[in-house]
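Here is a typical protein record:
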Amino acid sequence: MAAHSSDNGTVARLATRRNSSPHGRSEGQLSLTDLPSLVKAGRIRTVLLAIPDLQGRLKGKWYDARHFIRNVAHDGAEFCAYLLATDVDMNPVPGFALASWETGYQDLAVSPALSTLRTLPWMEGTAVVLGDAVHHDGTPIEVAPRQILQGQLTRLARHGLHVKAGLETEFVLYQGTYAEAVGSGYHGLRPLTTENLDYALDHPPGAHRFFRRLQRALAAAGLPLEAIKTEGAPGQVEVTFPYGGALAACDGHLLFKHAVRVLGAGAGLAPTFMAAPETGVQSGLHLHVSLWRGGISQFNEPGDGRLSQIARQAIAGLVDALPELAPLYAPNINSYKRFLPGSCAPTTMTWGYDNRTCAVRVVGHGDGLHLEIRVPGADANPYLALSAVLAAIDHGIEQQLALGAAATGNAHDVDGVAVPSTLQEALHAFRNSALAQDALGAEVVAHYAHLAQLEIDHHHGLRAVP
């Protein structure tokens, strides 16, 4: 079956260990003071400065490493603001307040987050650093995905809570190149594997080589994965990462997807993170989340292991609020083709204990007790999907919501609030949500509502007019 969760034993322990260097950094992580000697030795020649775009892709520039050290590391850079105001095809489109033809598509400033500096082993001689999009006066750009997540982390901090998160995603590997897929009109696509290899340990040579290269590359970048497994659909793969800080988890996820695409292209493969790339195939982005205070998990009652009041309020908030925030975790027309009865994707906003048919699955024991939120698809921008989850959790805690009974058996058959069935339905709820306005702000809601409308218009063959 597609969309299985991986073994949660390691996840449940909330592992925070990394391959540490003598300087206390993970292998692959760099400080700015490391760069000059690496550049002098010829080991680093290029530094990529990148920001996450609206779709959760890395966008930015290649810099000569010496130029980066002298002129960019401390002073930042400028990118065209349209990077945060385009549709999925990178078309400059009207209707965004941030940037448009009316504004002249001005620049925004990018401030390197130097704590994210690391080597990029799948690109020879290259390091990467993520940046924060800011106005020229240094104030954050509120619609930037990284800023939205930081805002939700700040909201939970007012309750004295911080978030640990682990991301688990599925994708499908097809043979051939993206250009070949486009040339064929996406017909006759050939998955890398042709049968159900769920949990298999005897992979074909091509799959084995790709998994090894991906594992080595991510470990060398300081992003060691927890597990790789093949899934039930032909060519489908699931990768899980250890628990850690929420922002770092999303940063790492974008680098992981970059590695998958670069290494895939080098191996003659075309990976896709579509939520439903074929009929009967669903790929999810499952978010494992828990709340902590002073190094102590806040999800289990000490001594008896039951769900704490905070955990129950958090789940109640997720069940209540997630239907109003769907464009953040299901952003495309295709996203809604994943929510099918008989799949491991949820169709109702239910919760349950170790139940993969629920939207919110409670798993783990003791300090490892945590929530697996199963509504986001593999196509979701991780910063936005996790922001929706945290906004819903905050809603439940702030309103002290009561939690209904856990679903047992097949939650697809349970009466209750349905997962939105189309992007149009989801957009209507999002635009009219007082909760979304309160949690995210009017500017963010308007920005991402417009993005969803562009996706709908494109699907119906409507063209934005500059």
